[in-house]
Amino acid sequence: xxxxxxxxxxxxxxxxxxxxxxxxxxxxxxxxxxxxxxxxxxxxxxxxxxxxxxxxxxxxxxxxxxxxxxxxxxxxxxxxxxxxxxxxxxxxxxxxxxxxxxxxxxxxxxxxxxxxxxxxxxxxxxxxxxxxxxxxxxxxxxxxxxxxxxxxxxxxxxxxxxxxxxxxxxxxxxxxxxxxxxxxxxxxxxxxxxxxxxxxxxxxxxxxxxxxxxxxxxxxxxxxxxxxxxx
Length: 231
What we know:
Low-confidence stretches: 18-30, 34-38
Shape: globular
Number of strands: 0
Oligomer: single chain
CATH superfamily of the largest domain: Tetracycline Repressor, domain 2
Radius of gyration: 19 Å
CATH class of the largest domain: Mainly Alpha
Distance between the termini: 15 Å
Strand content: under 5%
Order of helices and strands: HHHHHHHHHHH
Helix content: over 70%
């Protein structure tokens, strides 16, 4: 197995589930109350359930009442932690962009082993892999009418972090003078292919998750050969 292939395989193992960073509490900070310790995992449980529902049924069928039922909590529990439907959706959008940024960063790190070609290939697979693994969340992340940027600046900051990784990739591959149009070309490739596989005719042609991943990998190799050049 080549270094490039090993890097891609390692990335594929982590693209669907990215561990949340663990931070230690400063010694001087007072310990949380019992209620706070209970609230934290309950909030996480509600978010996890909401994400699964979103990916399964889409945003049109998303309701906090159904989230509560599936999470086996009271109907008021989601409102207690998030306030309203738009707030929990914004939290999911923020998480989604943070995870996407981490996936892209791992792809870019492949340059250390396989060069610019490996980084471009791995980053493309990371973006498309995230979309295929999280269809409902991915659609929501690019639906600003469902998450008001003015109300949820954290979601906007997370989206900028993800786009910043895309910019970093383009500068790594093409140099510091790479312009915005070249960045848009890369974005059009990964986002357009994701949309075609999720909601377009390519999804009908490649009906299983494995088939869509395989097609994305083949297209990615061709893109890298044409835009980046041979290894």
